[in-house]
Amino acid sequence: MSKPGDKDWLPHDEYLRRVPKKRVSAGVIFLNSRREVLMVKPTYKSVWVIPGGVINQYESPQDGAIREVHEETGLTVSSPQFIGVVHAPRPGEGDDVMHFFFYGGVLSDDVQLTLQAAELETWKFMPVADVSRYAVPQFAARLTSLLTAIEDQRPVYIQEPSVVDGGRI
To answer: Which tens digits make up the pLDDT trace of 73-93?
Structure first.
């Protein structure tokens, strides 16, 4: 084990500079009485997503989820239930993403949202079977596991595969 003064010892600031960085995001799944998922359509993407976004520096995933939901939809959720985390390697983008998922509960069928116009075009409750037609394939594939986590009240960890140099990691 190296120690200060050793040839291979790194000063703390240099060590921190070299530590791999990860993006962190959080989203909240809301359902209606028909067990449809609240999905929103961003202005800057061709796909639909659940409310959420990137976590700010020094912000917890839960606090970030609460903030993002309020900013994007006007909904106030005080303590969404943690239901899972997804590790998504993105070698083509030079990093990994840790997606935290929370459950915000069942919304009334006549709920009104106040969309953040700069970010969101529209919203709708979507049957689970339709999500794969509107969302990225990765989200549609993990949605069943996340809904099971809600029902079982047992969080899930999902590891997405990645392709590096033509091989699976």
So the answer is: 999 999 999 999 999 887 777
